[in-house]
Design goal:
The protein is an alpha/beta fold. It has 4 helices and 6 strands.
Amino acid sequence: MTLFAAFKPIAAISTTPQSTQLLHPLCQSLTATLYVPETLSSIDSTTCHYQGSLKNHLATIWAENRAFIFCLATGAVIRLIAPLLEDKASDPAIIVVEPTGQYVISLCSGHQGGADRLAQLIAQQLNA
């Protein structure tokens, strides 16, 4: 979708089968990369597995993405991204999708990083 072009590349993070099922169709429509732990089964070949801790994995993909979509508890996301945040002018947009898909939260880089707009677009996609 051209609406999402300004936010690419986008990484989505899922740690449970439920959140993977929620994010997978969204990632397909956004052409985002869905990362899941190696302990979860892949839905298809577009899902990427990460090994080890999510914290370490995020550090390796942080600089190459303009936006991150997490389907995790907001507190967990804050703890994961805190060491990676540098400046509101350069940090990626951070979005949290509540595990049932009812709410989409713009967590960081809302204005300059576009997270507020991205959250609105994702909410429309999910009917949240």
